[in-house]
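note to self — DONT lose this again. spent like an hour looking for the file last time. sequence + predicted structure for the chain T wanted, 316 res
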Amino acid sequence: MAAGFGMLACTVSLAGDASEQLVLISFDGAHDNRLWDRSLDMANRSGAKFTYFLSCTFLMSKADRGSYSAPGHSAGRSNVGFARDKADVLTRLGHIWSAYQSGHEIGSHGCGHFDGKNWGKSDWLSEFDQFDAALANAWTRNGAETPSGWARLARSGIRGFRAPYLSTGDGLYAALAARGFAYDASTVSKGPVSPDFSKPTARFALPLIPEGPRQRPIIAMDYNLFVRHSAGLETPSKSKEFEERALSAFRAAFEAEYSGARRPLQLGFHFVEMNGGAYWNALERFVTETCGQPDVACVTYEEAVRRLRPADGSAS
């Protein structure tokens, strides 16, 4: 993970009910099986739908690591590692399948979490090819029968992407368009903005939101809070303080939109509990108190695309 874990405002004529406040909550990596359990339980209790941006090396055991070769790197390398063993992968696959069947979204976070800002189109297409193969073959590669319907998910169910380190470039956008991705969620904006539908692949931007005693803007993502609060060093003794700061920031960002323009609010997280779980604890409280409010919908990015795309399909 990097401190950059992450466009200009775009005015659109929204399709559907423009008065509804959308909240988009996503998780990068989607690996730790204990946090899969926690996130799905959170969703079941709140009615929220989440987007999980999966890193495909977590569908490969360490014994299979040689099957992945990132552009410009030797085979078997990954910045986020691989699954412990086949049993670990199969447990994760069960969570992915359960989430997908329950209306959550599985998106792509690439495979080995490399910084691809200088990758060309062909490099990204190679990364996408390997993601697709890892997803399609995950069950059989790890010694289990593929569930009926999984092939559809692997073939056409991955509609969105978030770049590792929020690191983008022309090569990425060319590859996303070539593959027909519906949206990319890798950019950052000065505050909540509507998605940009003027590009072949719609672009969502994680917003800067005010945070802390001085209300300094920060990317609405747990890792950035972790870096600000404790310089990226685990400080569980201050977990409650950091939790309250994060929750206050989430609440204020939500209220500003809910009582104002009602642009979609995006919050990003990782499958890592930082600073003693401060940010997951804040998220759980936020989701519980927010997603059931009148005129609020906690939805996936894919659902947000469906609701927000201009009815005539025109550029914004």
